[in-house]
Specification:
The protein has 305 residues and is an alpha+beta fold. Among the domains are: 70 residues, Urease metallochaperone UreE, N-terminal domain (HSP40/DNAj peptide-binding domain), CATH 2.60.260.20; 88 residues, Sandwich (HSP40/DNAj peptide-binding domain), CATH 2.60.260. It contains 8 helices and 11 strands. The strands form 4 sheets. Strands 6-7-11-10 form a 4-stranded mixed β-sheet. It has a 3-stranded mixed β-sheet with strand order 1-5-4. It has a two-stranded antiparallel sheet with strand order 2-3. α2 packs antiparallel against α3. The longest helix is centred in the N-terminal third of the chain and has 17 residues. About 16% of the residues have low confidence.
Length: 305
């Protein structure tokens, strides 16, 4: 069984941040969309995703480190023995060594369920068989439009069996966010595995993301800047009217509250609108205006020039 630490290329003492960073790097390199001519890459992508799924769960990681589960998250047989008979010691009456009570050890491993109904472990092996193995997890990639991610719009995804489901995006969604669909993986004797959906938020032609805020550079005309007034502004929720004060300058940033991404705390960020005055290059009226008028202010004095 592949070791999840080895699959991700990290040590057993790796921090959560180091594990996440290693997975992101491998997922980017091995993603099926970038390796269409290499079918082995898809298998490796699924393997590293399963490894990250285990190591990113504190409880599962601790159980794996203690040897209670294997790299697939299935219960591990103690000391290499299966769940059936065998495991008899030199005395022929159970597993004994130097007078040590191995019953306590096995009871700890199996949560008290390892003893046979007749008493201890003597004369009959280790008590119970490992449960049937679940089917493998299946990795999916979901490309989400920028506006959909900001507004948490439901996404439709097609599974490997051809069925489609509507997936609800979680608050705080970003590129690299993973969502688990229980029982939507491959079938197995112990039940179906899970589908692990990795989200990729696509870029937008003019919106940008900064944490939970949305950034926008908004062109305005010279007369809008000089006179001020209401201008129409696009947001992830649709256009709104924004008030521009008279005498506005390029670089001035205005805030539209609650028009950003929904954070993990359920609160929405804001949209920050930076004004950019767009002056036409060859407008005779503006040329005539500046010929008869000159701004006498020392606008660069604070720069020492």
């Amino acid at each position: 069984m592949a070791d999840p630490y080895s699959l991700l290329g990290v040590t057993r003492s790796a921090t959560e941040a180091e594990i996440k960073s290693a997975y992101r790097k491998l997922a980017k390199e091995l993603h099926p969309d970038k390796n269409k001519d290499n079918p082995k890459a898809a298998d490796k992508f699924s393997a590293v995703t399963n490894a990250y799924d285990l190591l990113s769960d504190k409880d599962k990681r601790a159980r794996f480190d203690r040897g209670e589960i294997d790299g697939e998250g299935n219960p591990a047989a103690p000391f290499g023995f299966g769940g059936g008979g065998g495991g008899r010691g030199p005395s022929g009456g159970g597993f004994e060594s130097g007078g040590a009570d191995f019953g306590d050890i096995f009871e700890g491993l199996f949560g008290g369920a390892g003893r046979r109904a007749g008493g201890g472990f003597g004369g009959g092996g280790f008590g119970r068989q490992a449960p049937p193995q679940k089917g493998a997890n299946v990795a999916y990639r979901l490309a989400v439009q920028f506006v959909d991610a900001a507004t948490l719009a439901p996404q439709r995804i097609t599974l490997q069996d051809g069925k489609t489901i509507d997936l609800k995006l979680s608050a705080g969604v970003e590129t690299g966010t993973q969502m688990r669909l229980s029982g939507k993986g491959q079938a197995g004797p112990g039940g179906a595995g899970d589908a692990i959906v990795t989200v990729e938020v696509k870029s937008h032609p003019f919106f940008r993301r900064d944490g939970d805020n949305v950034l926008l550079d908004l062109p305005i005309t010279l007369d809008e800047a000089v006179k001020g007034g209401k201008v129409k502004v696009p947001t992830v929720d649709g256009p709104v009217m924004l008030g521009v004060t008279a005498g506005a300058t390029s670089g001035k940033t205005l805030r539209l509250r609650g028009r950003g991404f929904t954070g993990k705390d359920g609160q929405r960020g804001d949209q920050l609108v930076t004004l950019q005055i767009d002056v036409p290059a060859d407008d005779p009226a503006i040329q005539a205006l500046v010929e008869s008028w000159q701004d006498q202010r020392a606008v660069r004095a604070h720069l020492g020039v």
